[in-house]
UniProtKB/TrEMBL annotation, chain B:
It is a single-pass membrane protein. CDD domains: TlpA_like_DsbE. It comes from OM182 bacterium. GO terms for molecular function: disulfide oxidoreductase activity. Its main location: membrane. GO terms for biological process: cytochrome complex assembly. This is DsbE family thiol:disulfide interchange protein. InterPro entries: Periplasmic_diS_OxRdtase_DsbE, Redoxin, Thioredoxin-like_sf, Thioredoxin_domain, Thioredoxin_ResA/DsbE_sf. It is found in: Cell inner membrane. GO terms for cellular component: outer membrane-bounded periplasmic space; plasma membrane. PROSITE patterns: THIOREDOXIN_2. Belongs to the thioredoxin family. DsbE subfamily. Gene3D superfamilies: Glutaredoxin.
Amino acid sequence: MIIELGHFSLILALGLSVVLTVIPAWGVQTTNSTLMQCGDSVARGLFFFLVLAFLALCYAFVVDDFSVDYVANNSNSALPIHFKISAVWGAHEGSFLLWTLVLGAWIFAVTLFSRDLSLDMRARVLSVLGLLAFGFTLFSLLTSNPFERSLPVFPQEGNDLNPLLQDFGLIVHPPMLYIGYVGFAVPFALAIATLWSGRLDMAWARWSRPWTNIAWAFLTVGITLGSWWAYYELGWGGWWFWDAVENASFMPWLVGTALIHSLASTEKRAVFKTWTVLLAISAFALSLLGGFLVRSGVLTSVHAFAQDPQRGMYILVFLIIIVGGSLVLYAVRAQGIKSNTIFSWSSREAMILVNNLLLVVATAVVLLGTLYPLAYEAATGGNKLSVGPPYFNAVFVPVMVILFLFMAVSQRSRWKNTKREVLLKKQVIYVIGSAVTATLLIVFLASFKPYVLLIVTIAFWISLNLLENILQRVKRRHWQWSAVFTQSLSYYGMLLGHLGMVIMMIGICCTVYYSVERDVRMVPGDELALGGYQFKFVGVQKINGPNYASDQAEIIVTYKGKEVAALFPEKRLYTARGSLMTEADIDPGIFRDLYVALGEPLAQGAWAVRIQVKPFVRWIWIGGLLSALGGFIAVGDKRYRRLRRQDAVDLPQNLSA
Amino acid sequence: MIMNKSLIIPLLCFFLLIVLLWRSFSLEDPHFLPSQLIDKPFPKFNLEDLHSTSRMRHVDDLVGAVSLVNVWATWCANCLIEHPVLEEISQNGITIIGINYNDNLLKARAWLDRYGDPYAFHVQDKEGTLAIDLGVYGAPETFIIDASGTIRYRHVGVVTERVWSQKLSPIINLLDGGS
Amino acid sequence: MKFGVMKPHRRRKLFLILFLLVVSGSSVGLTLMALRENINLFYSPAEIVSGTAPVNKLIRAGGMVLEDSIFRSENNLEVRFIVTDMQDSEFTIFYNGILPDLFREGQGVVARGSLNEDGVFLAEEVLAKHDENYMPPEVADVINQAHAEPSK
């Protein structure tokens, strides 16, 4: 009954999304303010029914209703309750419902936080979002309905959730990722509304900024958590694989990062107007493309959902309508829009231009690598190839290094023009200072590697420039140190965002160059020395979990004779599916992780064991989360609220336009 | 107004992308192969049983109940994938009849010993004559025949849980209810 | 127009265009080079047996793991197994390391590595798939094609 209620709610949501698309748009065309206003309540109704549908599916999981196909395929009565909830988004149908729900939540947020947006603009934005909601809901109902039952014959026991997904990381990672992905729908809708109204002014950029920031921050958290999950759950200690699905989430992130910067210059200086609109469209287009790649089965990946040509075809058509339509609108309506182009090469505008170019190049690199196998297959009529991580590393990393060099220089740049002495003052000292400190640290604490020296030097250099940036602010207040604490939230957000990237950069480079790893055959009592640590294989015992049986090894780690950690990696057999899982055990630390995973049992009681010491690996995720925090903090800036009130004053004037 | 042509560039790039995606997408989709044989009687055959080669099987052996006829082979990688699903289907009381297509008898028996045998019986189609009569495109393929021995549905490709619950099972229920 | 008498904003524009051309040209060139060096083509057992596959070059290869063909070393992690297209072509893969959880006899497998002069495939990586119902599409192709061609 509840399930039918959920199904019905989803159908109602579809109906409301049609209303939301049509009515406010109609209101705009006929300048009927009543019609425009009704967008708000329709949008809230839409969100309400999506929540209802989602809760109904959660309910089916909690009560083990195996007459529902989706539940039977992805749950099991022995599954712990928190995994039953997360199993809701453990496979295609439910995760798409979550995706739709998240869009509903963003639409709801738009109705709450855009009271001051002029009425006609709000109507346009809601109408565009309504169209997206219509596409998502229809997709759910037509091709991936999670509410379908298999009656009258249904299984007594569920097929269980894929063991890989029975994990805390999966409870949080997909929702965060989806909030980010789908969040780019809001700047997208704003961009389309702007093109539609023909008022491509700075107010548009000001409006998009907080929405873009928050979507970007969520996406950052999502990607970071995904990397962390892959690290401990896929079992072998890698944290980024350049897998097609990872790339699918990474491309919107790169473009989103460019968008954040470009929006700032459009708002402050009225430059790059059409370019910024294009970025806003691209960020969302890449999110949709990601959805297509993941769910259509054209790319093979560890993450890919089950293949279904019907779904792929649907998303492809949706992609053509939405993105194609937007780009046509862009080609037509962006004509004649003039941007302010007066800025010097040392200005912040120029720096942001470089930032944008590099990020777009990086995106193109990733896109090329991701789609090349498809192109090759299409050109040769079915021959398959794969593009290895070395390609991405060889091309992507240099682009990033150049980007980070610019990040250091640009910290002091000012809008319009930066005086040479401001930009260059003490830079030579900073570079030399960074290089010397980096060399000393590397030589005394580790071994000398030129690339590590390069990266750590750049990292220190950026940090010094961030400090210099703060100092300049203090100086402007006549060296009142209290100025450090009285800056705007978006300023702190900016600092934190860049600092996070610096920390991530150090983490990535140290992990890549200083990690040590050994695959060994061990019998109880064997010892292995690695990275200064002594690993002793004590033995293996059998244990039982709620829905699995496990071989659990015990490995004692000592450092200079003192015990540091006892690790218990497992090899689990999940009984419902009969699938084997490697559960690694990790002793985490700020400066190093000790990572142990069990391979397969060998003859004579021996086991294959992989042992790794991974320095600074945690800095990757700490950095990512700090950056995201920066994004969240920036949204809280009072300025956005104050400026909104100014807009509200403009409202009558806008209406008459 | 002067047209700024550079604004069309993104649209062109997108168009290229779509062409590529469309191509790679339409490359493989053999799932829709309408059969000439739907609603026609199952073709006649006279072939050895897989387990007792002395016994000949005829089309009469298929008549009497709604059943699934599954074309499989040991060389067919995807047959292994659908195998657990077939096991489940047979546990639900559905008769499954195997056509062992272009295969080696000993290999086929070993395969069944190893992975289980949910089939009521198997026909050995060594030369592929029956498969030709059926218009089989490749293995696996699965036909639904009704109690009178008429082909009512043809599925090309792996029978997954989804195919079973959404396509085959409803048809079987319908045929069962009608008889 | 001579360079020297160009108006400053013109000159700036020229520099911008030159800069963009150099940057985009070189990055496209480098990218394509990197791409060409790092694609791993897939070869079927038949292509490996017949000598179509290149020797000592990083490629991918795969098929079904032959029953009872897995041999492990007694004192380290060396392992070798035979991969087949279920018809006439078979070749041996050598690997030193931990095999993925879903590696089993009679299952599809894809390995990345290189072929040596003796026709033995030295794998650097044996690829794991994370779903037991999932057949690598390369392997499915191999087996279907091998069967479609009349056996020699």
